[in-house]
Amino acid sequence: MKLDDFDYRLPSDLIADEPLPQRDASRMMVLDRGRQRWEHRMFRDLPSFLSGDDLLVFNKSKVVKARLVGRRIDTGGAVEAFVLGPGSTPGVYECLVKLTAARKEGVLFQVAEGVEGRILQPIDDSMRWLVDFSRSRLPMEDILERWGWVPLPPYIQREPVPDDEGRYQTVYAAEPGSVAAPTAGLHFTPRVLDEIRGRGARIEYVTLHVGLGTFSPIKTGNIGEHRMHEEVFEVPGSVAEECGSARASGKRVVAVGTTTVRALESAARGFRGITPLFLQPGAEFRWVDAMVTNFHQPKSSLLVMLAAFAGRDLLLEAYQDAIREKYRFFSYGDSMLVI
User: Where would a tag sit more exposed on the chain, N or C end, judged by fewer CB atoms within 10 A?
Assistant: First the structure.
């Protein structure tokens, strides 16, 4: 299929730059694949669509405060380093680097007293650079915790604020490793989770650490030629057994988020590792019967996955209605339940 088959026009004022005051106050479109229709509800209504036979699976990955902001030691100019992970040498990290100078190699910058980085060299011909933090007095985990900022998505056109540290994180996040939030989970509150349990539904957790590739555009005109980014995941054996048992007995497995879908559908190849899985129309969903998700960017791999699950025509018609109804889109936006 062509990439243009997954395009739609979104007014910029529908991109949610800020979260709502309450997590569960978002709207929720319920998309019924069997009946080929949708309805408009509130996210707080989600438990009413669940039963005691359902198994809900969440991604418990936690967003790391990976964005460091500092100043050049020689000129005082601003420097940003987005820490992606460790390099092959102790104290050296792969980073996305932002500064005004044309030449980056050798630039020394300071994040805080005793926390310095030196830009070494680019990695291949990509946007990634090796940055040496070995002169810093603290390990990187402590540096990020004390001075790091939440890395908001590129379509949020504002600087992070302290409130983002809590709001761009699910209430059940437990395993640090993501550089972007598994956003379908941002709507859940302890009260909603208690309501779900009160209906008898079971809750389990997997881990998939969301990488920057989640924002990478598909660059091939034919989606079948797209090379998907890789992400680290783990599906505990007990969760895999529960999912298999639920489906074998005709019960629903409800995945919260596209990241959970990707982890579960990758588990057929092993319960832990790195997945390059790209779900596109024609793919068979072996583990997932329903999905909670957000509204995704045009021509994105996430929209393609959702089209594979819900059906492209039905999905894009529903998106057009969401635009007419002024739904809020993307990470801090409204939700969708696909059944």
Answer: N
Contact predicate 111/33, CB 8 Å: no
Distance spanning both ends of the chain, measured CA to CA: 24
What is the C-alpha radius of gyration for the chain, rounded to an integer number of angstroms? 21
| CATH fold match for the domains 3-63+164-338 and 67-147 | no
Give the pair of three-digit tokens for residue 85.
């992970």
b/e burial code for range 78-116 (CB count within 10 A of at least 16 → b): ebebbbbbebeeeebbbbbbebeeeebeebebbbeeebb
- Following DSSP, what letter does each residue of 134-175 receive, concatenated? TTSSS-HHHHHHHH-B----TTS-S---TTHHHHTS-TT--E
Question: pTM higher than 0.90, yes or no?
Answer: yes
> In angstroms, rounded to a whole number, what is the distance separating the alpha carbons of residues 215 and 225?
18
What's the CATH fold of domain 3-63+164-338? QueA-like (3.40.1780)
Tell me the C-alpha to C-alpha distance, in Å, between residue 227 and each of 84, 224, 231, 279, 301: 20, 8, 13, 11, 10
Is the model's pLDDT at 35 over the cut of 80?
A: yes
Distance separating alpha carbons of residues 56 and 262, to the nearest angstrom: 15
DSSP symbols for 223-235: GGG--PPPEEEE-
What are the sequence ranges of the domains in the chain? 3-63+164-338, 67-147
User: Model confidence over 154-164: pLDDT tens digits?
Assistant: 999 998 999 99
Asked if 185 contacts 59 with a C-beta cutoff of 8 angstroms, the reply is yes
Residues 6+ positions from 149 with CB-CB distance below 8 Å = 65, 67, 68, 69, 160, 164
Please give the class, per CATH, of domain 67-147: mainly beta
